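Summary for the funding panel

The consortium committed to producing paired sequence-structure records for every protein in the target list. Below we show the first two records in order, beginning with the earlier of the two.
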Amino acid sequence: MKTILPEVSDGELRKIEMPGDKTFTLTIETHDKDTRILKLEGVEHLRCNNLLLGNVIFDVQKIEAPNLSDLARVTSMDNAVSEKGRDYLRDLGTAVEKGELTFLRLESSYGCHLDALCRSYTAG
């Protein structure tokens, strides 16, 4: 696990954009009132829960070796019981380990929790 955008700790999620072209952009206001952008490209799976007014961010992480539970959550396959479903999750894990996909997680002290599987991301 690697923390990206460490300066956003205690910042607030201000805007989410999903234009429909497999991109997803988060605009975050830092504690110092600076703006940071996290843009995901080639989004394959995304799960965003508990979006609340005034989401306070704890951190944004790149998870280099997600476990099957992480992958099941982001794909909404939490109850995958078939062998085919488990094989699909293992294939996604292999793609992350090979660098073909990136697993990102945004954790909040209050509000939004987001997991995403994407081809690439930019942060700044």
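The next record, for a separate protein in the list, is shown here:
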Amino acid sequence: MKQRLHELATTIALRHNLPPALVCAMITVESGWDATACRLEPHYRYLWDVRSNAPFRRITAAESASETAPPDFPAPAGVGRHTEWQHQQTSFGLLQIMGAVARERGCTAPFLTTLCEPEIGLEYGCRHLAHYAFACRYLERFGWAGVCRAYNGGPYAAVHNTNPEYPQKVLAALSGQWPQS
């Protein structure tokens, strides 16, 4: 099974011009190669408006403390807003891609649990990683360590190095050597 997942990760990484070794190292760190891994992160507040295809409005303090979605939080047809709210705050699959981030990167599946399907989760995780590496030019500016910081903690983390432990874990999974750019 792991060999098949490794081959799939390699194929999808190459499709996005990413080093397969980096993607595989991130999988090791993020999920330990468990495609069904998921983690609710209830304090995650970057949410996606599926109707306007843009970031959802700023969350109030009361909404942040609540376990239920605000009345105006949109969900795909056939999905309850509370389910979408929870799923956007959950990381899924091999690369532990956040549901809201997968929506931002184009995931239109009604239920975000589909991100636990290896091919789907890897696709959106690699899209997100490639976005930071190439569209944001973080690879050029900060190297793979900065790209990893952004993947794990967002753009602020890449620029201000607020999560230096994450790239160190990935680097250890790479046996101490970043891929050539």
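Regarding this second record: Residues 64 and 77 are 24 Å apart (CA to CA). The chain has a mean pLDDT of 96.
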